[in-house]
């Protein structure tokens, strides 16, 4: 142990080590995330150059060099502005009405504004999860609002109600069946027997619904057909609901609800004066711009949901023919481009309908879009249905619920909640796809934009870019908003999985 | 004495009921019968109305029109076509154009999509933000909007041929499209092509050889210098021996347009550009999701083996991610093919534009033409999905074993 000091006590302070390389704050961020390796440094410089070459000219074009006020193309020329001219915003100001309403008559545009306001008023509380009364709200938005919006935008009144419609539908059905039967009977051989049978069936239907058609004719000849028809429908439907839901024991709730709904319908009919012709009719050929884009997309969204749910259930059904039909239907619509569907709706559908029966061009397109979007929604909803454990349906079955109650009360609500993000994504796709209607001669936002380029009073070198910038911003705001909402819902749904 | 187990009763009726009506039993059977009756009724109505309407409009149904003379020109025909040819020829010209634009679009979309996805996952902050911005911007704008933007606003405002932008006086960019030098075959072409094909074949076979050598002898072999020298060397030798394979016909401005050279139509450029950039944004998201689905530990394991980030991605992560990526990627390829029908908006002569557009308006045979067009797209979809499910089945088998 000799030679070693008994203890060692350092007499002076050790020099402090240099501070570690800073990895926080701005310099640290630059060092670790932008310039940590030579490759990254090069990438950063290339990226910065790219930004410099795209963002700066864009901002310069849209804001700094832009012309903000003017009345015609001369204001947007470099000679008048005295500098290099960017976006020509007066062009958008001049065409704004066309971009939003199309050729909708100027005096009637309040109707469009009112529809937009109603939609916003109903949609906002539906999107905020904390607001109560979701089912009432959804019912108003998905069922009541489309009907009201139709009478607001298109105008026109009603002459009959559910009773007349049912009678019309059934008599048309029986006439068609009888006609088919008589044609078949004329074919001879085995067909004559089958044809006679079908003809007999059609005649039987005609005899069965005779009281109904008699009642319809009596109502239509009365002084106020709509109100009489409405009252009869309200009484019959409410009475049926009352009896089906347990009669005097516990049917009161259903009765009150049904009467409340009918009272609501009556208020709408009265306020909109549907019994006295309603608002003046604006033909859908006059509609255009953002109005058509929103009408097509909202109708597509609303109508594709029931189609999608029905097809998804059909595809999961164990009944052979229904499953095969659903699979074929879904795969067919998913396999063809939307533009062929629109051409199908525009050129083929009129041929398939009776000759005296014309369908509005917009409605034809809406039918095509509903089928197309329905097939896509069906696959999204099927994904949700498959995500629900089988035990849920089995437990409900053990409680003695029927198939429809299991589906409607247990499985479907869970499945739909699962697939909200997927549905919103498919709605975004649908919203973007509505721009295709401009190819079949409907003037949606993009179609109006294209039409506005033809105006010689505004033809300047920057008009094209200005128009595309404005329309692009509108589309972007809608789609981006929807995608952010979908992310928000996804985040909320997965709240229990967060760590 | 053993008692043999009794076999269960045959239950023929129950089996039949299950077969005919599924889980819903006889009720299901009844439902099917009603459903089929309704379908037959609807079909009857459609056929009856269509027959009546066609008779009113004096249109003869049938496919006889396909052999009539088309009588209109098509701006881009890759198979020989003249105005005197039949509508069948028009159909084929359009189909070829659709396939060409889809094929080129798919190649570019895949390249851009993978690059953007890797950029989004890059540790470089700026690069990932730029890639993210690209994806958000492109995905939230309609495709038709983008096609029209490229066609009308970007390519349409290029200068006319007299003031065209030229690169090396050989490539000209104007509002008539892009004019490029056209290769013209000369004496040494055959030998050059053969040499090139041989070089490509050997270059493709080299990695397999290197792999086998690595497994047998343990000696790694760097492939790319050999492959590169083969690809350049063999054609070069062929050129030196047999003479120049082709010369370029340089386009020149004559009057108001270009003479010589090959012209790529602006419609084609706009459509391909829009389709490729649009689909690339979706592919980027798919690839990103696929790469992120590979466990983080794989990346770390690769790094701890001393592989670079690029090598780890290429050798470890991407092969595993490919299983997740491929099905949605095929879906995007199909979408691109279907979206190429938007060519009708800018007049590129694809299948839809020349057949369901021009031919339909000339002949008025709506039912036949739309049915043919739909079935072509449907056929492409079905064939691709069948191949994909076969691939998935094989993958599932190889994973299971």
From TrEMBL, chain A:
Transmembrane region(s): 41-63, 110-128, 140-163, 184-210, 230-248, 255-274, 286-313, 325-349, 361-378, 422-443, 463-482
Gene Ontology BP terms: amino acid transport
SUPFAM superfamilies the record matches: MetI-like
Alphabetical keyword list: Cell membrane, Membrane, Transmembrane, Transmembrane helix, Transport
CDD domains: TM_PBP2
Domain ABC transmembrane type-1: 290-486
The keyword Transmembrane is annotated on this UniProt entry: yes
Topology class, membrane: Multi-pass membrane protein
Annotated compartments: Cell inner membrane; Cell membrane
GO molecular function per UniProt: transmembrane transporter activity
Family: Belongs to the binding-protein-dependent transport system permease family. HisMQ subfamily.
Name listed for the protein in its UniProt record: General L-amino acid transport system permease protein
Automatic annotation (TrEMBL), chain B:
Transmembrane among keywords: yes
Cellular-component GO terms for this entry: ATP-binding cassette (ABC) transporter complex
Cellular localisation: Cell inner membrane; Cell membrane
UniProt keyword Membrane, yes or no: yes
PANTHER family noted in UniProt: AMINO-ACID ABC TRANSPORTER PERMEASE PROTEIN YHDX-RELATED, MEMBRANE COMPONENT OF AMINO ACID ABC TRANSPORTER
Family of the protein in this entry: Belongs to the binding-protein-dependent transport system permease family. HisMQ subfamily.
Lineage: Bacteria, Pseudomonadati, Pseudomonadota, Alphaproteobacteria, Hyphomicrobiales
Residue spans crossing the bilayer: 26-47, 59-79, 91-119, 140-158, 191-210, 222-248, 268-287, 369-393
Alphabetized InterPro entries for the sequence: AA_ABC_transptr_permease_3TM, ArtM/GltK/GlnP/TcyL/YhdX-like, MetI-like, MetI-like_sf
GO term, biological process aspect, one: amino acid transport
Segments forming domain ABC transmembrane type-1: 95-388
Topology of the protein relative to the lipid bilayer: Multi-pass membrane protein
Taxonomy, superkingdom: Bacteria
Coiled-coil segments on the chain, per record: none
SUPFAM superfamilies for this protein: MetI-like
UniProt name for this protein: General L-amino acid transport system permease protein
Keyword entries, A-Z: Amino-acid transport, Cell membrane, Membrane, Transmembrane, Transmembrane helix, Transport
GO molecular function: transmembrane transporter activity
Pfam families: BPD_transp_1
